[in-house]
Amino acid sequence: MSVDLTGEMDDVAALGGFFGLATGPAEGADPSWRAFCEFTGVVLDQRIDQVAEQLGGVPRRIAASLLSLSVSARVTALVLGAGALHGVVPRLHDRVRWRPWSGGPMPLWIERPEPAEGHAEPPDLADPAARELDASLRPLLDAMGARASVSSQVLWGNAASSVGGALRMLLTQRPDSSSEALALAVGILGRAPLAGLGEVVDEPSHPTGIGFARRTCCLFYRVPGGGTCADCVLNG
């Protein structure tokens, strides 16, 4: 019988924001929930167009990049949160579901969370964590790249940046997990598909003392009134 991670994922979800995750059968009454793999095609095109409009009519390429950053952050937060807080890697790629949303973090639900296949015990979580991120995000990022002419380097760089963001949120909200969170984040960033796209760095000005330096740009600087993000390669 498979292991039920509902309690562990509910604890991660309690952090809020991009760590949020609904669990249990009650959400099944909502017919708008869709498999994560269905965030593609016309549905994806419509969402990219919505983001472009919300940002003042920016090109689809920019909108798709920023959408990928937001969606990647949802997946990386769940993987890093579960790994750091409970020493488990959740199976997301064929279990997690999403529903249409207007703003904020993408809503996600898993009726019964389970460990990923090939799950390892701490401290060897980086390999299964990286594999789960790859399996969960690659179909979506490939679709975004094809439909909005965004390079894979930019899209996967956004995913790497989201690992850095999730790490700092964990260090801020759950400092008791700092050593596990830091080790797992560094391990994930050292493995495909995120290897070489960014690294954890010292940042004395931040309360956690931790920052992130990416080697790509999410294109936010091309949004009217935008600028470069703190971790942007253009700041170098």
Description:
The protein is an alpha+beta fold and 236 residues long. Strands 1-4-3-2 form a 4-stranded mixed beta sheet, with helices on one face. It has a two-stranded antiparallel ribbon with strand order 5-6. Helix 1 packs across helix 3, helix 2 crosses helix 3 and helix 4 crosses helix 6. 42% of the residues are buried.
Secondary-structure element order, N to C:
HEEHHEEHHHEE
Largest sheet, order of strands side by side? Answer: 1-4-3-2
The fraction of residues in strands falls at: 5-15%
Q: Any low-confidence stretches, pLDDT <50, length ≥5?
A: none
Number of helices: 6
Instruction: Tell me the total number of β-strands.
Output: 6
Helix content: 40-55%
Helix-strand category: alpha+beta
Distance between the termini: 51 Å
* Mean of pLDDT: 96
Main beta sheet: 4 strands, mixed
Regarding quaternary structure, how should these chains be classified? single chain
Radius of gyration: 17 Å
Q: Which word captures the global form? A: globular
Number of domains: 1
At a glance:
The protein is an alpha+beta fold and 236 residues long.
Q: Which SSEs are present, and which pair or pack?
A:
Layout (H helix, E strand, L loop, with lengths): L5 H8 L8 E2 L10 E2 L5 H14 L5 H27 L10 E2 L9 E3 L15 H23 L3 H22 L4 H12 L8 E5 L7 E5 L22
Parallel strand pairs: 1-4
Antiparallel strand pairs: 2-3, 3-4, 5-6
